[in-house]
Write a structure and sequence with these properties.
The structure is a homodimer.
Chain A lengths: L2 H4 L2 E10 L4 E8 L5 E8 L2 E9 L4 E8 L4 E5 L2 E3 L7 H13 L5 E8 L9 E10 L13 E6 L1 H9 L6 H13 L2
Parallel strand pairs in A: 4-9
Antiparallel strand pairs in A: 1-2, 2-3, 4-7, 5-6, 5-10, 8-9
Chain lengths: 182, 182
Amino acid sequence: MTDRDLAWNRLESETVYTCPGFDVINETVQLPDGTETDFDYVAEGDSVVILPVTTDDEVVVIEEWREPVRRINYGLPAGGLEPDDSEPAAAVERELAEETGYEAQRVEHLTTVEPTNGFADTVFHYFLADGCTPTAEQDLDHDETIAVSTTTFEKLLSAVREGELRDGRAALGILYYHAFEA
Amino acid sequence: MTDRDLAWNRLESETVYTCPGFDVINETVQLPDGTETDFDYVAEGDSVVILPVTTDDEVVVIEEWREPVRRINYGLPAGGLEPDDSEPAAAVERELAEETGYEAQRVEHLTTVEPTNGFADTVFHYFLADGCTPTAEQDLDHDETIAVSTTTFEKLLSAVREGELRDGRAALGILYYHAFEA
């Protein structure tokens, strides 16, 4: 299949809702069969997701409230890219320090995926942060309350297997590392 | 950490934008430190994501246009639950037939995750669909154009490793199956 067979033609595009987390874009598009229709998607942008491994070979994990699903979430530190970030790796050190108070000796890109590209333009850049030690100051946004702890990679993988780690963003990073890096 | 330490208190909730794919909910919330603030999230709901394995031990994959990221996406069939679906498994047979024209002999739940619970309530229920044969009629929604093919699981896993399969929804299912089921 080629672009010609599957691609949509964007005719008009308008931001119809804005909030601190995302924008909503409403478009008029032409489908491959020529018909015109509306399509809405969420513009949320790029984030880094970090697998922080300490000098004691433990993983730094966080717990935080996730309002859309109304529960405390157990997972990996993460955060959005900022305009000053020249590349995704630049966000890793900042987000790791802000959310956990840890600093890494070495950062390595693992993979990059679009988690929900049917309705959002979100991109997750996964990084291994190796040789982490608790030397920084946790520095949270006004609406963040984050509890930090450490665990073993084996326990995290078991939590993914049993469906106890329900955060798909963290689960993908753990599974990728297990498959190709561990 | 307990709910008391991390949970937000929902004071008000209002649907502020509606479209065929999702709603946007604006809330007034009280943070753990007592301050009140706004929070917006996307209400998009539950979907099934299907790993369809044929009687010849190949995986049925699809290509479709993804407007939020403006490219043809290579991945696994999936689709939203409908009001009549008594449970997620009920959606598997329908979505598999509609998107691919295949029918399965056996369906098995793999895992359930929230891919982007920082800004959306989206839930993905992963299922293995085993013993698939091309016996149904592809029956697409008005804005779907989907190309169907088959490949080996090893090639899919390699595409995830190399970052060629950029769809995180599909990548998580492939990695979970590789880690715990294959």
